[in-house]
Design brief:
heterodimer; A: mainly alpha; 0% strand; B: alpha+beta; nine-stranded mixed sheet; 11 helices; 24% strand; F-box_dom (chain B); F-box-like_dom_sf (chain B)
């Protein structure tokens, strides 16, 4: 595995006074998510993820992430796990995983209407009064 | 005890002290206007102005001694500046507050508020409580309008991460995402602001002017930046000729969308959008390494060169007589300083990358209102002795359109330049031989003398990757049918659209399958004419 990829793990292991104990507690990451993180790190050691450039090179996830294993890695997980991966990658400071997971979340939102995004993100519908208020205050959203 | 619990305990211990001096127990400020305070008097009108410590303390003591009569708990806690129209930072949107925070607010002051912007956010460790969304608008202070919602995934992420996710989205997607709820709208606005500020130096300053020709064709909208503002494009911006009901100039999101549409038009990206790559303008806009015009040359009929314009000054957002920004050029009428030697003079713009080994492709666009011959494109040779010569030049014609589009493909192996001029549903292909030994070669485009003095005229250039090029040479501006190909023999440099004695060879490509056949045809025809 590539422990140095996680800045959190790397810093923790560097600061450990007891060199015999190599355990690093990761308190804020659920075990199921941590398994996926470990899976990512193990594969990264064999096949590093190519840098995701900005601006993106394509308008599809498949067009940007050309490495099949990484595509499948994020496409196999459901939305809650995907957001957990984002949080875990941020917490553990694993930049490639963070880039990959954030890109996948972005691609979920691309080309979708507000209604579809609400469903994806589990955001409730505006009431008619709220929508009328929004239309009055921000007409540009509805026009042009 | 976790860190959060420690902070919470400390805050509760501090409330009494802050309450005595009527300070906000979240940020400890005393300004009513700039801060939310747990201390809510029965009559808020008493405190419409700056805070009066003595008066508040007196009121506080009175309330302590009398039976506790707090103001009727409002369903929403907000800054006093919330909803004030003249406050540019306020957000007249509903805010989201955790239900538990509302219950605890009277005691703990757990709700944090960010001063002017009015955004209320619970502690990041608040927990997955139900969220309450409502506003401070009187008509909405109605229990029926409050709704309890489950926290959604993005909500649990830090703001920096949400911004990171949003940064990949284009203007349209940002807008759709922002419109789902108030908190995401504020995030989307911030991301839009960052994007605009990172690229606005590639455009002249505003205000944005729109020249519509929507009666004949809704796609014929010309965006023109007048370049009179002393600052780069930003929100709020001065708009001219826009219906105020349609465009809210105070927000970054609509400005970002406007810039993407301008980019789509100026750099001829519309066909890619029509073919399904709707984010092409957004990606192109954010590309900081665009092919750019570097050198502007006034070339008169005696082929002597005058370097006319100073290097681009990115610190000056205002427009010069003729302004170059990244890969596009724009004209105003104030060009009296150009010496009018003859109508054959050209104002040439050379790109910033020399032609190296391999195949290079660009798309040029002329948008000219009056001139039938707006200018020319080709390859410019910069010789060691300082001479600048057209190694290959194609005169560009305008037909019934306002814009002329030409693709240029340079092949260093075959020492050739091939041009693809789009004229309605026809792509006219012409070939030129290039003398490789004569200096450094650059793609270049030129305004004719007439075009260079006509307001609003634009000229742009952009690079093409092989995939984009494949789409370009097989599309038509109106996507009505597969383009009809006209191959013009080499050496025929003058193109008269109406009349003329040439008989260009044409081929109906409707029966051809695939790009390879088209390419092969072009190569075969070129070889037949050699």
């Amino acid at each position: 595995m590539h422990p140095k990829l996680s800045q959190l793990v790397f810093d923790a292991s560097e600061n450990k006074e007891d060199e015999e104990c190599s355990d690093v507690p990761i308190l804020k990451v659920e075990s199921e998510c941590l398994e996926k993180v470990v899976e990512f790190l193990k594969h990264y050691e064999q096949e590093p993820l190519k840098e995701i450039k900005s601006p993106l090179e394509d308008n599809t996830f498949e067009g940007v992430v050309k490495q099949e294993w990484y595509r499948n890695f994020v496409q196999e997980v459901d939305s809650p796990m995907l957001f957990d991966l984002v949080t875990a990658a941020n917490f553990m400071a694993i930049q490639p995983l963070l880039d990959l997971a954030c890109l996948k979340v972005s691609c979920l939102l691309m080309g979708k209407s507000s209604e579809e995004i609400r469903i994806i993100l589990n955001i409730p519908q505006m009431t008619p009064q709220e929508e009328e208020h929004a239309r009055r205050e921000h007409r540009w959203i509805f026009d042009d | 005890m976790t860190l959060h619990e420690q902070l919470e305990t400390k805050r509760r211990q501090n409330i009494a002290r802050l309450q005595e001096v009527a300070c906000c127990h979240i940020c400890e400020c005393t300004s009513w206007r700039r801060c939310f305070s747990n201390f809510i008097p029965n009559d808020t009108k008493q405190f419409s102005g700056e805070h009066d410590t003595e008066r508040v303390m007196q009121s506080s003591r009175e309330q302590e001694t009398a039976e506790t009569q707090w103001a009727e708990p409002m369903p929403m806690r907000t800054c006093q500046c919330f909803g004030v129209e003249e406050d540019g930072g306020c957000w007249p949107y509903s805010l989201r507050v955790c239900e538990m925070c509302l219950k605890d607010d009277d005691v703990t002051g757990r709700i944090r508020i960010c001063g002017l912007c009015g955004i209320v956010a619970c502690d990041k460790d608040c927990g997955a409580w139900d969220m309450l969304e409502c506003t401070d608008r009187e008509e909405w202070n109605n229990a029926e309008l409050k709704r309890f919602i489950e926290p959604f995934p993005l909500q649990s992420l830090p703001e920096a991460l949400t911004s990171y996710i949003f940064f990949y989205l284009d203007g349209e997607d940002l807008m759709n995402t922002g419109f789902t709820c108030s908190s995401l709208l504020s995030q989307a606005e911030k991301v839009a602001m960052e994007i605009v500020k990172s690229v606005n130096h590639q455009y002249v300053s505003g205000p944005i002017k729109r020249l519509d020709d929507t009666e004949t064709d809704p796609t014929k909208i010309r965006f023109f930046l007048e370049g009179t503002n002393t600052f780069y494009l930003r929100a709020p911006i001065d708009e001219q000729d826009f219906d105020e009901d349609l465009f809210d100039a105070k927000k970054w999101l609509p400005l970002l969308r406007r810039m993407e549409r301008m980019t789509q038009e100026i750099y001829y990206l519309g066909f890619e959008v029509a073919l399904g790559d709707y984010s092409a303008p957004s990606r192109f806009l954010r590309n900081q390494e665009k092919l750019a015009f570097k050198l502007s040359i006034l070339l008169n009929s005696t082929w002597s060169m005058t370097s006319y314009f100073p290097p681009r000054n990115l610190d000056n957002p205002r427009m010069d007589n003729i302004t170059i920004r990244a890969g596009y050029v724009q004209v105003t009428q104030e060009i009296a300083s150009i010496p009018p030697n003859s109508d054959n003079d050209e104002l040439i713009f050379s790109v910033n990358k020399k032609l190296t080994e391999g195949v290079h492709r660009i798309i040029c666009r002329f948008a000219c209102n009056t001139s039938l011959l707006p200018g020319s494109v080709g390859i410019l040779g910069h010789h060691d002795d300082g001479m600048v010569v057209w190694e290959a030049q194609l005169m560009v014609c305008l037909c019934f359109e306002r814009e002329a589009i030409v693709g240029l493909e340079y092949d260093s192996i075959h020492h050739s330049l091939r041009t693809y001029s789009i004229i309605e549903n026809t792509i006219r292909v012409e070939s030129f031989s290039i003398n490789q030994t004569r200096g450094q070669l650059y793609f270049a485009a030129a305004f004719s003398r007439v075009s260079a003095v006509t307001t609003y005229n634009q000229l742009s250039v952009r690079e093409c990757c092989p995939e984009e090029w494949a789409k370009f040479i097989t599309h038509t501006p109106h996507l009505l049918k597969i383009p009809q190909l006209e191959l013009i023999p080499e050496g025929d440099m003058m193109h008269i659209l109406f009349g003329g004695t040439r008989n260009p060879q044409s081929l109906n490509v409707n029966n051809m399958v695939g790009l390879s056949d088209l390419t092969m045809f072009v190569q075969n025809e070129a070889a037949a004419h050699e």
